[in-house]
Queue: 3 jobs
Job 1
Amino acid sequence: MQIATFNVNGIKARIETVLDWLDREQPDVALLQEIKSVDEAFPRAPFEDRGYNLETHGQKGFNGVAILSKLPLEDVTRGLPGDPDDEQARWIEATVIGAQAIRICGLYLPNGNPAPGPKYDYKLGWMARLEAHARDLMASEDPVLMAGDYNIIPQDEDAARPEAWAKDALALPASREAFRRIVHLGFTEAFRARTRGTGHYSFWDYQAGAWDRNDGIRIDHVLLSPQAADLMTDCRIEAEMRGREKPSDHVPVWVTLDA
DNA sequence: ATGTCGGCATTGTGCCGA
């Protein structure tokens, strides 16, 4: 089973890019972030015509997540538990029914800039809720995958110019600590389980020729519970997508599971 | 630090978020 996470930066602006990608790469499951669309305005038809089941959790203008799946989806839930007053659309989860059932979670973690400030407080609060929910998911002992735009640079090696991000919400010590607390519940960070070293990025700013200079950061991650990690046979970043026509500022990250 | 982009409110362009 091939699963990809992809921050598309606006589904309406990116529709041709995303459809070309689906036709070429044929993921079984795709988790999309920053759809920037309400559910009623999401262009469902071209995805359903290609045989994808589609579940969205959108809002007007910002944020928004979606799950595409060629396999059946069951028990879909929307919104990260822990704060009924949180109106930002950043979490969706569903069970994908393949050779074995996998709980798949798509997330768009808050950016948090500027830090310090209320946006950073919201980020850390959201991560505390994520930790609590991840603990519950881990306790299920089912195969669980949590993937998306984490807006976290886990280590200095995950940035071309770490010094430029030292005071940014994506790399501050408190951000990294919150990410590690989640990983340390027992999750495997899929990419780093297979690839070491510098130079591996999933985001390049649109500004200042960041792609041309390979001035990137790695902020899109896949976390696997032990039961899911045991199924992983590959994980890769599709960096070449950043050089295509009308790219998102993020590229897809893929995992292959023997399921 | 800022060389860009998407969406919104809104009809020409400035603001916000990233």
Job 2
Amino acid sequence: METNKFSNQDINRLLKRGVCEVIVKEELVTALKSGKVLRLKEGFDPSFPDIHLGHMVGLKKLREFQDIGHQVVLIVGDWTAQIGDPSGASVTRPMLSAEHVKTNAKTYMEQFFKIVDKEKTEVRWQSEWFGNFNLADVIKLTSKFTIAQILARDDFSKRYNANQPITITEFLYPLLQAYDSVAIKADVEFGGTDQKFNLLVGRELQTMLGQRPQQVLMVPLLVGTDGVHKMSKSLGNYIGVAESPENIFGKVMSIPDGIIMNYFELITCVSDQELDEFRQLLDKNAVNPMELKKRLGREIVTKLHDAKSAITAEEHFAKVVQNKEIPNEIEECFFNLDSSMDLKELLTSINLAKSRSDAGRLISQGAVSIDGSVVVCNSMKLESGCVIKVGKRRFAKIINSDIIK
RNA sequence: GGAGGGGUGCCGGAGUGGUUAAUCGGAGCAGACUGUAAAUCUGCCGCUCGGAAGGGCUACGCAGGUUCGAACCCUGCCCUCUCCA
């Protein structure tokens, strides 16, 4: 099987937009030109089954490689999941049950294949090779690297210098990931720039074991909706691939103006020429950034859902956020309105407030309104079918639970 | 094995016997404003009772102790870091 023929210009484009660094670039270019189908490795940790836009940068690039004929190998990190990627201050995690790993992997793949072509993807589980590992194998693997080498990784050295604990299992993480490359004979491994160390260990181990070292393609880290930190679930500044169109659109609208172009470039397919136009418009203040953000939101929702959802999501945003109106669809909540009505109780029980104290706070801050009028006291008469609004965008339609009986 | 640090609310990090539900920063929430769920400003930010004023309960690694009173002092334990071996 051969890949499609394509020019230097195509290769340039492929390795430029949304790519941070390629090691070794000349070799990858040669490999791409050779016409050989390359095995593109991408791994994931099934303890975090949710994909967000940050991951999408790399997945989109994988897709581009697929579209010209290359093969993706998706690795389910059912062993590394138990260690936890040492980038944070994470510690060894409890073993996930086999069942749990399975359901997480399923969830992950549903999201993964929204972007990557399922037909051109081979799914492999780490346990296929690590399941048979014994202590001798572990010793053989670990003896190939030194502590000094491992400590060269930025995350490790930072923690080490800050007198924070690092377990030996965490040191194992890069080695396991590297061995994956050997096991599947990877030609190229994809990852964020924060993965550089692990990716390079893969190259080393492959060389040691007589394989051709994989090429490493690093994609930039996407900044989160806060505009400051990298997008991550634990920081809460993420936009999930599986979220509703309304949520995705709204979250896109909440990004700071300064990172609009960054998002366009990394996670949409809007052409380079058009992006240049946008940049000029922004520079000259010739466009309201909000309009560009709306376009961005439409692009992203279309990619993750479809064009129709994008339109609905935008309408929803205009209606609810900009005009402060009530959305078309409101979740119905059942509550017994008869007995001595207690609004705090109601808000808490339908999850519009965390606790009765929280509900009290919201009421006193004027955040709660019923059918458009702001509530000032706790006890009041409610009609079945009334709409409660809390804050800017939390709504519930209250149905008297007695009626349906 | 020895010596010395450290464990505080979602996170970072003050506080070393009472006025501490615990300074401050970040996150989060709300209101105002706006060009948006941007930015900015203001307020809130353990649970619970109360319309409010105010009250009760729980909380500073764990378990005890001293004291009228402890995040703060003492004892033991657990976790963790550094240095020496």
Job 3
Amino acid sequence: MTRGTARSGSTPAPRSVDVARLAGVSQKTVSRVFNDEQYVSAEVRRRVLEAAEELGYRRNNAARALASGRTRSIGVVTLGTALYGPASLLMGVERVVRDTGYALRVVNTMEGDPAGVAGAVDSLLDQGVDGIVISEPIDEDGTEGAGGDTPLRIDVPVLVLGAPPPVTAPMVLTAGGGADLMAHTATEHLLDLGHRTVHHLAGPQRWYAARDRLEGWRATLTAHGRAVPPAVEGDWSAASGYRAGRELAEDSDVTAVFAANDDMAIGLIRALTEAGRRVPEDVSVVGFDDIPVAAYVSPPLTTVRQPFDAVAQEGLKRLVHAIENPGADALPTSNPPVDLIIRASTAPPPSRTTPAHGRRTASRSLGDPDHPPLPNGGPSSRH
Amino acid sequence: MTRGTARSGSTPAPRSVDVARLAGVSQKTVSRVFNDEQYVSAEVRRRVLEAAEELGYRRNNAARALASGRTRSIGVVTLGTALYGPASLLMGVERVVRDTGYALRVVNTMEGDPAGVAGAVDSLLDQGVDGIVISEPIDEDGTEGAGGDTPLRIDVPVLVLGAPPPVTAPMVLTAGGGADLMAHTATEHLLDLGHRTVHHLAGPQRWYAARDRLEGWRATLTAHGRAVPPAVEGDWSAASGYRAGRELAEDSDVTAVFAANDDMAIGLIRALTEAGRRVPEDVSVVGFDDIPVAAYVSPPLTTVRQPFDAVAQEGLKRLVHAIENPGADALPTSNPPVDLIIRASTAPPPSRTTPAHGRRTASRSLGDPDHPPLPNGGPSSRH
DNA sequence: TTGAAAGCGCTAACAG
DNA sequence: CTGTTAGCGCTTTCAA
């Protein structure tokens, strides 16, 4: 029943001594009870809790932090966008952080912000955090040298979600770095369908995530001995996908495109369609993310789903471990599965030669062969 | 050049006394410099700053908070979703909070979480915040009585974004509550087009925002003396929109639907199309939010755009004012404009009688008649 | 303009 | 099992 209870303006907030007095114990005992330390008799514990309840006692976190040297909070650096990927990651992080008993402090990096990730981390360090999560970092000064750039030095454990920028810290963890693997899966799906090669609508190359995807795509084509057409760079927006689509529509060699995210894929499809090139009959398109509407656009989008929650959870578990066991070894990584969701935006290329193998297959997992593929297909099969 | 600088593990962090010693002044003077207090000679200030720089000094926030009683941080309660609306609001909030010099603490409410908003607020109060922002509240126990529910009592100023749940606090501010007005605009647009009435695909009614939209829709129909068909309730997802679409497709009286968000609108359109009902020729659909891909789906979606950034900015300015001037009057509210973005998912109803007035008009603003309408139309006109 | 002293409310050693 | 004694690193008084 403590729900939402709080002091009303005037009365000063009760302190642990007040509780101690009321319960007839020492202040330290109150502290013990609230920290779930052992060696407190059930009877005393009950009395303390009761007194605390009566007074509406709430521990003062500033005092706690000051005395213990631990803030019990984790800072996260995110991009200042409502983009599905970063937003999902942030939500996943919040969930896990709260579960672990830490508080979450958030700072955004805005694109174009000169201070970039470094500034955000700095501000977090100023605020005082026990660990830092850098989500989907982007590398603001691609020019290098504009800011006297040494790797970022941080004195708390760091978890980088996505791909790692240069960071120096007592412990650097990464999670969810499998973007290249996912790009590989997407590209290979298209190749399997019989396409000669696959074009790529890339994300902004300042984003490590975008570079990873591009790299995975390129490597796959190379591994198959296919031509690597120049990639078109977008900015994650559907608008940029649309613009790229107008370009690509003019090149009749284009029969398959792997877009670095679903928004761009949707813009791309629209442009293609408007230009008279049907999807998937003339051109196949694969997206990336599996945004909520992906199954409902026309045609339903074949895409790669990132396991945001799993990534956040696994990464944070390791971060918290590093925070609470300084000096200890990092917990082992486990690669979350990547799922290719095959819907209706991909098909074999317009007849020319029938592909020998690779008819459309069902959803499949990579990285964890035992993981059962998720339901795919049209809208009706999604929750 | 302080970018990213931080202590390396072993050396204890320098304190203000260390800086004082090095600068040859008292510790209090260091404090003065860092708080930008007056009465410090330029010379002394310089020496202090220099010493601080040399030592890599960083103020200890816990100590500051403990001594001053202010945490200089604002807590925000959001939904644990990557939904465009809530995510956008959160990003907007972060931006402004940082600008005002406060730190941001985030706690999510998960749907189905028994503690709900109350629990989230409680956790924020535990952590210690100077003010609280509740974003898009939902009212978890619609049943009432399940938790002995008195209005939430909070002892710091509160800003509610969206629609206000019952809250008791020294100062309760609201911003962005114009959802009913926006719903009105959307509904009226459809009526202007000549539709006899408008159906509504509502959001989950536990959400205040969803209720507001429904109310705006209902009121508009009533005001025009039109029949108010039963609303269909979805859960914001495209999947739920799709399900609703299958239902509505069977009712040939349905010629216009106002969906409470874009995701549902997209699912709805897909179901309608699959059922052979063309959009907008047979059925017009209006969404809500103007998500990034709205202009690129087929057909491009007519929707209502919420001014997230403006709402966050305005609300926070008022919250910070309330925090820093306890007892003072709240700053006045200004209603941000609501924009109806007309694209291709709406049209006059299938011929029957030609509507007297209301041919498709350009984008228009409500609430701020002087505000120039934003560019609308197809993809090509979007950035 | 500057400094000295006294806490803020809690946790961390140590006793008992 | 429980209590005592010190601080944690600042901001506040109040003097100088």
